[in-house]
Amino acid sequence: MVMGSISDRDYMDEGYHFLKEMGVTVEYTIVSAHRTPQRLSTYAQSAASRGISVIIAGAGGAAHLPGMLAAETILPVIGVPIRSKNSIDGWDSLLSIVQMPKGVPVATVAINGSLNAAILATQLLAISNPSLQKKLMDYKMRLANSVMQSIDDSGLSDPLKGHL
Ligand code: RP5
Questions:
Q1: Closest protein CA for atom 2 of ligand 1
Q2: What angle do CA 99, 103, 104 make, to 5 degrees?
Q3: What is the pTM of this model?
Q4: Which CATH number describes the domain made up of 2-129?
């Protein structure tokens, strides 16, 4: 998991914590496409041989980090557009990451969507990992339970009670 600046960290931590909760081994650092271009190349070119399976990259503004990583590795890259101080409400970040040219995809999640990036990365890893599959199924169950709990807590009616 990489981000373009320490200022992205507040938005990326949520995804990082999810990966830790799932027991996924994760490295979490800063790689700046514009300020450390050599580091970006070295990171992308060494990722697979260092044992990395999926890269999550968050960046804001002119967000070239995910796309440039994808240009230099065949590992799947998931991009997180960050609504950073220098961005135009996150739109520039989103479009810079999602509008990749044919041949070099970046799987782009919502603006500030590091949690979904982490879930998607875990789902990719779970394809060949039954223990992660179980953890993801438990997570989905907790999501569903939280919706049911909110119905109970709010006093709304549940017309489906007894029908499921
Ligand atoms: C991007 O510029 C970073 O990913 C960050 O979202 C944004 C602002 O960076 P700082 O100027 O706060 O370091 O490259």
A1: 60
A2: 55
A3: 0.96
A4: 3.40.50.1970
